[in-house]
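User: I'm new to structure prediction. If I give you an amino acid sequence, what do you actually give back? Let's try with this one:
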Amino acid sequence: MSLVTKIAVYRAIVLTSLLYGSETWTLCRHQIRKLYQFHLRCLRSIAGIKSQDRIANAEVLRTCGISCIEAFLLQAQFRWIGHVVRMSSTRIPKQVLCGQLARGKRLPGRRHKRYKDGLKQNLKTCGISPNDLNSAPLAGASWQSRCQDAMDDFEATRFDAIQAKRQARKTTTIRTTGQ
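Assistant: Good question. You get back a string of structure tokens that encode the predicted 3D arrangement of the chain. For your 179 residues, that looks like this:
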């Protein structure tokens, strides 16, 4: 079977099962890292890349022609939030997203990460202003293209950051071994 076919099957079966309901998840960095490790392990297996080959993760993603798992998570979340914002105010998902508790008591300790907090952070990461959230998704097609552009920019920025970090690590290694 060709690599393109294997990747198509992986996207259709494994990723859809793995990320089912991910648009409503509130994830911490270590949970995203676990998903990323699983994603790369699957891609290395599909592409026939062994750990002894010493190929960087970014190269594996580029070889397979697929995005990182965080981009899939962001895309699902932005698609879902677009649907919710376009819903009427009587629908439960919109009431839950926009509502605030009138009263209640929190347990002592660190604040729990809320969905809205994670959403605002993800929007900022992708270069979309959280203030635009109430008006931008109302135009469905423009919101989709804006989210796609944001995902492309996120991927490019992430790839550049990974390359810069790797290059810095290599130059540090060369300096320490050269002295």
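You can read the tokens as a compact description of the fold. Here is one thing that stands out. The chain has a mean pLDDT of 86.
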